[in-house]
Amino acid sequence: MRVISENTVDWKMGAPEPLGATAAGAFVNFAVSVPGASEVTLFVYRGAAAEPEYAIVMETADRYGSVFCVSVKLPAETPEGGWQYEYETKGERFTDPYARLVAGRERFGKRLTAAASRLVRGVVRMQAFRWNGEERPHIPMNDLILYKLHVRGFTKELKTATAGTYAGLAGKAEYLANLGVNAVLLMPFTEYNECFAEGDRTEGVPTFASTRFYHGSMPRIPEEISESVREHKVNYWGYAKHYFLFAPKASYAHIPGAADIELRQTVKKLHNAGIEVLAEMMIPQDTNRSLVLDALRFWVREYHLDGFRIIGAQVDTAMLAADPYLADVKFLCDGWDTGAVYRMTAEPETPLLAEYNDGFLVDARKFLKGDEGMTRAFAGRVSKNAANLGVINYITDNNGFTLADLYMYDVKHNDANGERGRDGSDYNYSWNCGAEGPDKRKKIRDLRLRMRKNAVLAMLLSQGVPMLLSGDEFGNSQSGNNNAYNQDNPTGWVNWSQAKKQAEFTEFVRAAIALRKAHPALHNPIPLRGTDYLASGAPDVSVHGRDAWRPDDGPYNRCLGILLSGDFAKVGRDGRDDSFYLVFNMYWEEQTFAIPVLPGRDAFRIVLASDALLAAGTITGDTLSVPPRTIAVLQSVALPKPERRGKKTVRGTKE
Questions:
Q1: Could you tell me which residue, 452 or 345, shows the higher pLDDT?
Q2: What's the burial of 589, exposed, middle or buried (CB within 10 Å: 0-12/13-18/19+)?
Q3: What is the pLDDT of residue 196?
Q4: CA end-to-end span of the chain
Q5: Strands 146-149 and 183-186
Q6: Of 23, 85, 235, 571, which one's alpha carbon is 20 to 30 angstroms from that of 198?
Q7: What is the pLDDT, as a whole number, of residue 231?
Q8: Which of 595, 646, 647 is closest to 621 using CA atoms?
Q9: Domains in the chain: boundaries
Q10: Mind spelling out the 3-state secondary structure of 625-651?
Q11: DSSP 8-state assignment for residue 596
Q12: Residue 261, SS3?
């Protein structure tokens, strides 16, 4: 170890773990993995100063395997911009891939010059965050009501000082809780270069500056505008090629330089509102496996995140799911091999793993718009419920139409993306209800509202975990753009001005969520078998057509009834839930459904319907006429017991 700066500095031998810069009293431990290097230089700066305050060369004697480390005593006062640092090896400087905070990217969408990009450096956080008073929700998988959002776009349209920030999201905690949401899924929010584009110049990028060589470092690409590329696109969504996987995005902070504190405050506020926080983690190709595990552990330990959706590179999901440190963390991924997972760890009482794919989206969209031969597939989606694996059910995701656009456009309208229509899926299974785009005709507007209600009910009445896309609860539109990945503007932002206009629909969504949460029959923690294994008089789940107890799988059938028996869903320790009969008429004409007869003295009443004219109340007959393209929710109600007067019964025939 040797000091090469003019300023003297107290230092001592460092520890090889944890990687990154970790404060311990007055000392900060710096540890970085650089395979194949014989020495690495650490530069420490006062804020954004151009010249380092300290420069220390770590040599072979300061290395454990490929990890170079040193512990440095920094002055007590924190300079403006914090103590910043970077490393150099083989004549190339790079930012610590384990940096907990990154300076130099505080303004979203600002393209940096080559000089400015050299100021993208790690920041040392000397003070620990206090989590005092936090109440973590720990919500079982089957009880989740998930809500997906983009941290910036969720509140950017609001006229507030905290619009588009972590603090802006925290300000919506009460709104989300009142809606009934108890978990949010954040789109990628770790630090990345949103201005990096395919046409940018890459001359001078060292070939070794990759996620493999520096255990996850981001290559420092010269960012001056080239002669051939005068304009750049903003990667608004955040699905990028390179990340600082330990640093929250600095430009999402209301207070510059405080992204880590602000995000923790936001998580704490959401938790105290009864809302879990899950995050999409985009893992770049060739990312070191141990870095992935370190990053997930870090976000759980330091930010109290409750779960992750892993996307990007192929990672060993079984290894992550079986990690003892992540034993109570939820994981959303496609293609789980639960057999491999539970050979490595004990199966939990409630599922912590869940499938995340478009299976429900495709089948539900097709069925709801009246495609042929979809009743069996959709019925399977409604009742799908495994003992050790959840399933995320969504009608819309960020990649595709919003719910309002799903029933306002037949085709995508992505001209603003500049991709000449080559981006975005051509298979949307959407329906414009008779007119492409906005329309003032009442008949079309009413039909679109009913179709959106159908979509919400289809999702919330299914056994898997429902997921709303932010803004869908009040008709947010992207004007038909089904791939707004580069639209950091009102197209990509949630339009909160719609909330007042769509108050009726928002209240419908709130009521549907409340109904689901109140009745375990609608989100049973145990798998549905389709049999009456309790000898209660009806199976736990049964499929019907227009005729009770007679399912119709014919290609031209668009009617479906699903009976969920409350005897198989406990309320409290000993009670049973009400039963529900879910009626789906996806024909364009009114249809008559026979109502199944329940065991005992139970009848049905309508508690929710996508057609407002289908009035609530007890059904006195044995049939129900359901308007076109309508879903009705029927809940069992106990009829009053006959009143006895001596030996005579008021109801019945017995004397």
A1: 452
A2: exposed
A3: 60
A4: 102
A5: parallel
A6: 85
A7: 54
A8: 595
A9: 1-128+204-230, 143-195+234-356, 529-638
A10: EECCCEEEEEEEEECCCCCEECCEECC
A11: P
A12: helix
CA 490 to chain centre: 21
Q: What's the confidence (pLDDT) of residue 655?
A: 34
HSE-CB at 375 with a 13 A cutoff on CA atoms is 22
How many Å apart are CA 587 and CA 590, to the nearest integer?
7
Question: CB under 8 Å to 333, separation ≥6 — which residues?
Answer: 309, 310, 317, 353, 354, 355, 356
Q: What confidence tens digit (pLDDT) does each residue in 560-588 have? A: 999 999 999 988 767 899 999 999 999 99
Give the C-alpha separation, 31 to 98, whole Å: 9
**CA 326 – CA 316 distance, rounded (Å):** 14
Q: For the packed helices 289-303 and 259-272, what is the interaxial angle rounded to 10 degrees?
A: 60
For residue 281, how far is the Cα from the chain centroid?
10
Q: What superfamily in CATH does domain 529-638 come from?
A: Golgi alpha-mannosidase II (2.60.40.1180)
Share of the chain above pLDDT 70, in %: 91
Largest CA distance in the chain: 108
Task: Give the type of residue at 496.
Answer: W
Check for a shared fold between 143-195+234-356 and 529-638: no
Residue 504: how many other CB atoms lie within 10 Å:
11
Which residue type is seen at 264?
R
Q: How far apart are CA 162 and CA 168, in angstroms?
A: 5
On the CB side of 6, CA atoms within 13 Å amount to 2
Contacts for 105 with CB less than 8 Å, ≥ 6 apart: 112, 120, 191, 193, 249, 250, 251
642 close to 603: Cβ distance less than 8 angstroms: no
Q: Is the pLDDT of residue 650 over 50?
A: no
Alpha helix (H) residue ranges in 131-258:
151-155, 166-170, 173-179
Q: What is the pLDDT of residues 43-86, one digit of tens each?
A: 999 999 999 999 999 999 999 999 999 999 999 888 999 999 99
Tell me if 168 sits within 8 A of 155, measured CB to CB: yes
The CATH superfamily holding the domain 143-195+234-356 is: Glycosidases (3.20.20.80)
Q: Is 535 helix (H, G, I), strand (E, B) or coil?
A: coil
Tokens standing for residue 427: 């298979």
Eight-state DSSP code of residue 441: -
SS3 363: helix
The CA distance from 361 to 512, in Å, is 19
Within 8 A by CB and 6+ apart from 147, the residues are 176, 179, 181, 183, 184, 185, 467, 468, 470
What gap in Å lies between CA 538 and CA 561, rounded to an integer? 14
135, two tokens: 């109440």
Query: Residue 559 forms beta bridges with which residues?
Result: 585
User: 285: Cβ–Cβ under 8 A, 6 or more apart, which residues?
Assistant: 211, 241, 312, 313
Strand pairing of 183-186 and 276-283?
Answer: parallel
Cα–Cα distance between 99 and 640 in angstroms, integer?
Answer: 67
* Model confidence pLDDT, tens digit, residues 470-503: 999 999 999 999 999 999 999 999 999 999 999 9
Contact, 219 vs 200, CB < 8 A?
A: no
For residue 245, what are its two tokens? 């996987």
Q: Quick check: 124 and 85 in contact, CB under 8 A? A: yes
Residues with Cβ < 8 Å from 417, sequence gap 6 or more?
Answer: 423, 424, 481, 483, 484, 485, 486, 487
> Is the distance from CB of 42 to CB of 145 less than 8 angstroms?
no
**Beta-carbon count within 10 A of 545 CB:** 18
Alpha carbon of 511 to those of 32, 81, 210, 339, 505: distances in Å? 52, 47, 50, 38, 10
Tokens of 616: 């609530």
Q: Are the C-beta atoms of residues 39 and 53 closer than 8 Å to each other?
A: no
